[in-house]
Design a protein that fits this description.
Elements (H helix, E strand, L loop, with lengths): L2 E6 L7 H16 L3 E6 L5 H10 L7 H25 L4 E4 L6 E3 L8 E4 L2 H8 L3 E5 L2 E3 L5 E3 L5 H11 L4 E6 L20 E3 H9 L7 H10 L3 E5 L7 E4 L3 H5 L4 E5 L2 E10 L4 H11 L4 E6 L6 E9 L3 H9 L2 H4 L3 E5 L2 E7 L9 H11 L6 E5 L2 E7 L3 H11 L6
Parallel strand pairs: 1-2, 1-9, 2-6, 3-6, 9-11, 10-12
Antiparallel strand pairs: 4-5, 7-8, 11-12, 13-18, 14-16, 14-17, 15-16, 18-20, 19-20
Helix pairs in contact: 1-3, 2-3, 5-7, 6-7, 12-13
The chain binds aspartic acid and magnesium ion.
Length: 405
């Protein structure tokens, strides 16, 4: 008998009505003769609400207690779905992360799954039950409840599919799949039938919030095909899978954009060993992730260093770097959150020169100025003014003819 792991995100379980809908869907899977393991997220905005509730106590930095609290969101939806399934005459049992044997490290709020002792799940499947597992949670070596980072139910689902050697892993969400660009900006954006792990990873990291990046990493590591599809219709979704030659003929697969970034520049930094270390260690100490970094060519023994960070980290960076400007002998700094990042992603870029030039041309034709550029083997990103971002996304979508994919 084939085994399916199906994950339903927060928007798919946001109300009892929606839970009833997906219960029917799960029942239909079971009636087709499949064994079904379901992973659920918390209902709607429950996780955000719980974080706010904790904030009201004045103490939300206690990782252990925060995880204890946040894990209840998924427990609630798992139990409600199991109740609904039982009411439909489908035997179902809900399990918390620890009951399901999901062993994690002890990094509260961003724990990693170390392994899954799946005997309880297997026992329940063999007893004929649909197993509904609370996503986003595990148990640490100390026996404490952990959570796996925002969006972590995706990772739960993919890790379970790997552990149970499932035949299919499906991520049900509120969009039809992975698109060539955000359809709210580009109405002609196309849903991709397939996308490679590497491309998906770039897109996920670039802020196309269809799937948690870590879940894509787990899928890649275990070579699990994952289908992202919509829980509100029966359209086929996008399959995240191994790269094949067909894909490589397409140079660019998608355009992503991110408006949650900020720019930072430090002027006339002395050109000496150890300066970059001092600056970036200070940022790391504050837990600030740096994205693009540029060091301009040296003139008169000095150069400018510019970088981008998440918009939420800007204030922390201003404080951390502000203290250092004088110490390192720089002449000043400038920063702002008036920027956005547009990126093109495609496995075919590796073997096709000129893709970056085409990107710059498309932006130039719209009169859009590029502040910074960064690249990987399968991605080119440009930092531009925030108010140009929609024009840029549309121009790039046209340039690479993504409406014809
Ligand atoms: N409920 C958690 C969150 O909102 C985990 C998830 O949805 O996957 O981040
Ligand atoms: Mg969620």
């Amino acid at each position: 008998m084939s085994l399916v792991v199906a994950k339903f995100g927060g928007s798919s379980v946001a109300s009892i009505e929606k839970i009833k809908n997906i219960a029917c869907r799960v029942r239909d899977m079971k009636m087709k003769g499949q064994q079904v393991v379901v992973v659920v997220s918390a209902m709607g905005d429950t996780t955000d609400d719980l974080i706010q509730l904790a904030g009201a106590t004045g103490e939300f930095l206690n990782g252990r207690e925060m995880d204890m609290l946040l894990a209840t969101g998924e427990q609630q939806s798992a139990a409600l779905l199991a109740l609904t399934l039982n009411n439909l005459g489908c035997p179902a049992v809900s399990l918390t992360g620890w009951q399901a044997g999901i062993k994690s490290d002890s990094a509260h709020s961003k724990a990693k799954i170390n392994g899954i002792e799946n005997c309880r799940i297997k026992k329940e499947i063999e007893a004929g039950n649909i197993v509904v597992i609370a996503g986003f949670q595990g148990i640490s070596p100390q026996g404490d409840i952990t959570t796996l980072g925002r969006g972590g139910s995706d990772t739960t689902a993919v890790a379970l599919a790997a552990s149970l050697k499932a035949d299919r892993c499906m991520i049900f969400t509120d969009v039809d799949g992975v698109y060539t660009a955000d359809p709210r900006i580009v109405p002609e954006a196309r849903k991709l039938n397939r996308i490679s792990y590497d491309e998906m990873l770039e897109l996920a990291v670039l802020g196309a919030v269809v799937m948690q990046p870590r879940a894509v990493e787990v899928a890649l590591a275990h070579q699990i095909d994952v289908e992202v599809r919509c829980s509100f219709n029966h359209n086929p979704g996008t399959i995240i899978t191994k790269e094949d030659k067909m894909e490589k003929e397409v140079m660019v697969t998608g355009v992503a954009h991110d408006v949650n970034c900020a720019r930072f520049a430090i002027f006339d930094v002395p050109d000496q060993p150890g300066i970059a270390k001092t600056l970036f260690k200070a940022l790391a100490k504050e837990g600030i992730n740096v994205d693009m970094v540029i060091q301009a060519a040296m003139r008169d023994g000095r150069n400018d260093i510019a970088f981008t960070i998440g918009r939420d980290d800007l204030q922390k960076a201003v404080e951390a770097i502000g203290k250092l400007v004088e110490e390192i002998g720089a002449s000043g700094m400038s920063y702002g959150d008036d920027v956005a990042k547009v990126s093109i992603v495609g496995a075919g870029m590796q073997t096709n020169p000129g893709v970056a030039a085409d990107m710059f041309e498309a932006l130039a034709d719209e009169g859009i100025n590029i502040h910074m550029i960064s690249t990987s083997e399968i991605k080119v990103s440009c930092l531009i003014d925030k108010d140009c971002v929609e024009t840029a996304v549309r121009a790039l979508h046209r340039k690479f003819e993504l409406d014809k994919i």
